[in-house]
Prior knowledge:
Radius of gyration of chain A: 22 Å
Order of helices and strands of chain A: EEEHEHEHHHEHEHEEEEHEH
Number of domains of chain A: 2
Shape of chain A: globular
Structural class of chain A: alpha/beta
CATH class of the largest domain in chain A: Alpha Beta
CATH topology of the largest domain in chain A: Rossmann fold
CATH superfamily of the largest domain in chain A: P-loop containing nucleotide triphosphate hydrolases
Distance between the termini of chain B: 34 Å
Largest interface: A-B, 43 and 34 residues
Oligomer: heterodimer
Number of domains of chain B: 1
Strand order of the largest sheet of chain A: 5-6-7-3-8-9
Order of helices and strands of chain B: HHHHHHHHHHH
Strand content of chain A: 25-35%
Radius of gyration of chain B: 21 Å
Helix content of chain A: 25-40%
CATH architecture of the largest domain in chain A: 3-Layer(aba) Sandwich
Distance between the termini of chain A: 31 Å
Number of helices of chain B: 11
Strand content of chain B: under 5%
Shape of chain B: elongated
Amino acid sequence: MTRTAVKVRGLAKRYGEVRAVDDMDLDIQAGEIFAILGPNGAGKSTAVEILEGYRDRDAGEVSVLGVDPRHATRRWRARVGVVPQTAGDAAELTVRETLRHFAGYYPNPADPEEVLDRVQLADRADTRIRRLSGGQRRRVDVALGVIGNPELLFLDEPTTGLDPEARRRLWRLIEDLARDGTTIVLTTHYLDEAEALAGRVAVLAGGRIVAEGAPATLGGRATAQARVTWLEDGRREHVDTGTPTTTVQRLARRFGGEVPELSVTRPSLEDVYLRLIGSGAEPTTAGSVR
Amino acid sequence: MSGAPAAPPARAAAPLPSIAATGWSRGLLETKTFFRERDAVVFTFAFPIVLQVVFGSIFRGAVPGTEISFAQLYTAGLIGAAVMGASFQNLGIGIAVDRDDGTLRRLAGTPLPHGAYFTGKVLNVLLVALLDVVILLALGVLMYDLKLPDELFRWATFAWVFVLGITGSALLGIAASGLPRSAKSASAVISLPFVVLQFISGVFVPFTQLPEWLITIASVFPLKWMCQGFRSVFLGDAGAALELTGSYELDRAALVLGAWVAGGLILCLTTFRWKGRRDG
């Protein structure tokens, strides 16, 4: 069963002369993890805030869970979870107090104790939020986003500022939520985050979607030329080719076995991304074959 | 959370929590938070009580030329200051902080009705103000020979001055919460005018020692009229002679305080922002 969770047609929003969002179309299916990537000022926040019902638009049609967020009702709010960017609220309350309190806003909330377990904060349940680490605090944010049992969850830069271990833990939590059928829309600066989590990504630049698709195939990434490099006579040589296997076989024959310092690379998601947003003058070929 | 995909039909059927229930829950949460924040407790709650102890130790006996004790005089003033502190200052700073630290933004993403947020604030304000008043009166009676009025109509006056004063000041505080640019500047932006207002409204300094232009300014704001009303309660008819006009002018007090309730409501409805300045 595929239902459309988010449908956007011709969305536009301008601030004075600046077109923050310009003629955007978007379809997000129920149950998928969808990432919106883009540099600061690309229109990510504006677009998502319009979907969340925080901000009005100038033109276009928007439907989120079948409702125009411009006419957000309490009933609709109960079906949508929003995890805003890092906040400093509820500092003097404990994790459990806060979760129980927010559960009272919803018609059909999750059990706060279950949510505590799920975000792995059961052992910090009676700690005041002020005393939590950045990663723990962020997990409280996610817990508050899902306490109402939402069908759709918006995550705004969920792991900004977290250490690698805390990021991975949060990623596992997000995947876990998606497995239960929650549709997840996340905005992020981090390409590895989009690659690790999202089934599909949209890259925004200048208020427009410049590419959309699975991270592995984004921007023709899968079919892009590979670069084969090796060491010969003390110099680093390279060939860009659409058939790297043939190239490697030829090299192997020429060297009669091992090719010194052989590597085959394809453009990383970062290369593709930088090209798409138009700021990567010279794509690098960092990273090995995935 | 478990079985989320199968849940939608059940969800649609469950009723949304009422404003009364969520408002009450907000009130409990606000109060819990208030008493855990040292700044709020010290500046808003403890301030009038500390001042009462200080004044009680400095001024003893009766106001010269009268039989009215100093305790009666400053307790009336401090109750006025406590009521305005619990409402105007508490809300002016508290809502500015809520706007800055993401509280309002987070709430806006939930099905919490807007009215429940304000209900919670009002419950918190009422509780803080009533507690302050009870402690001020108890301390006054136990330590500083404060005499409580025994006529019922004095307490009736107390009640309407309290209700009109706290409502008007609370609305003024909600409107003023939009002025500070951030949580950090909120206590300065809100507290400075409040302290000045206390000095020119007859809380600390008797009106007879103030220049007329300051009295004119004070007469615009609710604090002067609250204090005047509370003096009528605690000083009785004999105290009226201490007033500038020789009367407590309760009718004018009711008029000005009532005007603040109406004007404050309009001000709030037209200027209140759920978003912070940085949210664009």
